[in-house]
Amino acid sequence: MTATRSLDYWRAQAQRLQPRHQAFIDGRYVDACSARRFECLSPVDGRRLAQVARCDHQDVELAVRAARRAFDRGVWSEMPPVARKRVLIRLAQSIEAHAEELALLETLDMGKPIHDSLNVDLAATVRCFAWNGEVIDKWYAEIAPTGPNELGLITREPLGVVAAIVPWNFPLLMAAWKLAPALATGNSVILKPSEKSPLTALRLAELALEAGLPEGVLNVLPGYGEEAGEPLAAHLDVDGLVFTGSTAVGKHLMGIAGTSNMKRAFMECGGKSPNIVFPDAPNLETAAEAAASGVFYNQGEVCTAASRLLVHRDIREEFLERVVAAGRRMQPGDPLDPATRMGAIVDRAQFERVSAYIERGREEGARLRSGGSQCRRDSGGYYLEPTVFEGVSPQMTIAQEEIFGPVLACIEFEQDEEALALANDSPYGLAAAVWTSDITRAHKMARKLRAGSVWVNYYDGGDMTAPFGGFKQSGNGRDKSIHALEKYTEIKATWINLDP
Fold it and tell me: Which of 40, 55, 269, 303 is catalytic?
């Protein structure tokens, strides 16, 4: 997929777009039971994209019933893995065929550049559904080591009804990371997209039905967390809850899940990832470009954002200058322009939140090296310059809290042990990176960093073959890879006496 289209082309397509706006329950689009809707506004220019169904506990009840009926009938849960595989691969092919439409929805709804929506998000979404489809008829059960008179079978069964609550920063891709393995293993799913970016999820439901997914197996409930998300977490007939979002909301949902029916709950939450640069980094220019894109990509609205730059004192000034220069090349532009590398903040509330952190950094004594101001004011959207702070101490708010915006906090160090202590001085543990030519140092740092993903001389590496998730308050469970399939299944041990 390549964004070879022109700005005029994407603008024309945007004018013709008619997004789905109803909930999707039991194989059909329906209004919310209350008939209420909420405004879906584009952060690109403030235009109204749709008035979307505002689901609540009544819609949750209907969706759970539909999902349970489909699961109990076995139309999907008892379908042979090879048959489920065919449906998921058809769905992947359909997503690819509709890539431009879905990418445009993603950009208009969330504000990211169309180049990234098409070449990153859509490409990875296609890969996710295809990969999970391909793997499901190759995932073997086990036989326990027994004597000749017994047979121990260890098998996996789908959880049943799974609720998936996904964030607004990668709406379609995060939905795919949940839906593909949950569906591959035979579950029925209720997807609750963020109210900030619900449009691709609603279109995906239609494509899944056309690909052969039986009615009731996938349901999509747009709405607010307290009105639709919490009732899903609390529902006694939901067997599993998966979530990607903030740590605070993840903790809240885990509590609800635990006090309801002890449903399986897996949370992928926030991060404050350290990016550690030593003087012997193989290429300082490459490392600087990675440091900038690691925190400014997707407007900094990334859970793995490289928001803490730990740089050795000997190269601090040179390296920071390179990072600032790279940031200047990523200034926000029109998200519909294929040349744009940084788009709009998702909405006014998030823009004001990030702006407040920038002001807090100033108040606490950090030095603003570049950026920090609103730009493209006449667009009607929410655009913020790439922002770099230096002179940051580890105790400062901008060094401890997840900002979820294009704000980089630079902290200097001298010794390896100091860098490691600074990196681990966080309640989060999602990702980390190390830049060095010393293989021994790289191994030792990677081993001691308390993070679910560690990248060496790289930032944000990995693909569908490697698990993704965090340590500490970055959550539990893993997305991607075969490990993701495990959380959507229950293990059953069947012990047979062969000599009764």
Answer: 303
